[in-house]
Design brief:
The chain is mainly β and 259 residues long. It has helices spanning 228-240, 254-258; strands at 2-7, 14-19, 22-30, 32-37, 42-46, 50-54, 59-66, 74-82, 93-97, 103-107, 112-118, 120-121, 124-125, 135-142, 147-151, 157-164, 168-169, 181-184, 190-194, 203-210, 218-220, 223-225. The chain is 7% helix and 47% strand. The chain is globular, with a radius of gyration of 19 Å. The chain starts with a strand and ends with a helix. It comes from Paraconiothyrium brasiliense.
């Protein structure tokens, strides 16, 4: 699942809620995000930074979008990545990836910029061990007259989601516009797209590829498992405060207390 959120300054955001069975990747495009969980983890993400969270057997947390220090409204992306069945009940974990840790690639005579969040682009390797399920994640900007070419692991699922501008994806019969998503064939091993020179603005999009797990996906709200029985168990564990949710009933985030 991919969520693209623009949050007003008066919004309570995403108060205390549980997860089990997936990993979430939160990417702050503008503003800030305050996060806290029932295990005592707490922090602030700023524009250009990401958080990789493994829910595993259970986590209860809050996410509070905030404007930037200059008043910039909060905007961000959150990608849900399924966990392999054998990792569904692993211990929760976090990995913050600060903007300064992300390397950039400049290509096509300066007309293409790629932030290498996860994976490899033009010989540049990202930080390692960000998720249990292998994924590649790039933030790409292409100026008019530019063409981006990016190799991807063959056999993986992949998509591009356009955040701003229009571009022409190789093999497509029409322009891909803002808020469009393009899914790629598993048979290919790369992605190519361009912004014609006569276009007025640059295009910005994310390019994401992930290793298929070839397992059932059963989602109920914030829980992602492989069967209805596992979902029912997750709901029961959360309500009863068991099997990873022991602290859920008595915990409240500082953000919730402020509200």
């Amino acid at each position: 699942m991919l969520d693209h959120a623009s949050v007003s300054p008066n919004s309570p955001g995403f108060p205390d809620h549980p997860h089990r069975g997936q990993e979430t990747i939160s990417y702050i495009l503008s503003g800030k995000l305050e996060h806290e969980d029932f295990a005592g983890n707490r922090g602030m993400l700023t524009a250009g930074s990401l958080q990789f969270m493994t829910a595993g057997r259970g986590i209860m947390h809050s996410e509070t979008p905030l404007p930037g220090d200059d008043g910039t409204a909060n905007e961000g992306l959150q990608l849900w990545v399924d966990l392999p069945k054998e990792k569904k009940m692993c211990a929760p974990r976090y990995r913050d990836l600060h903007s300064s840790e992300i390397q950039e690639v400049i290509a096509d005579a300066g007309r293409v910029k790629i932030r290498v969040i996860s994976g490899v682009s033009n010989g540049v390797q990202s930080q390692q061990d960000l998720t249990y399920t292998p994924i590649w994640y790039f933030d790409c900007t292409v100026k008019p007259g530019g063409t981006i070419k990016q190799l991807l692991p063959q056999g993986w699922n992949a998509f591009a989601y356009v955040m701003a501008g229009d571009l022409i994806v190789s093999g497509s019969q029409r322009a891909t516009k803002q808020f469009d998503i393009v899914t790629l064939s598993q048979d290919g091993d790369g992605f190519e797209a361009s912004v014609p020179a006569h276009y007025a603005t640059e295009a910005r999009f994310i390019l994401v590829a992930g290793q298929p797990l070839n397992q059932p996906v059963v989602q109920y709200g914030p829980f992602v498992m492989t069967s209805r029985a596992e979902i029912e168990q997750a709901v029961s564990d959360f309500r009863m405060g068991e099997n990873g949710f022991e602290r859920a009933a008595t915990w409240a985030s500082r953000a919730t207390k402020r509200l």
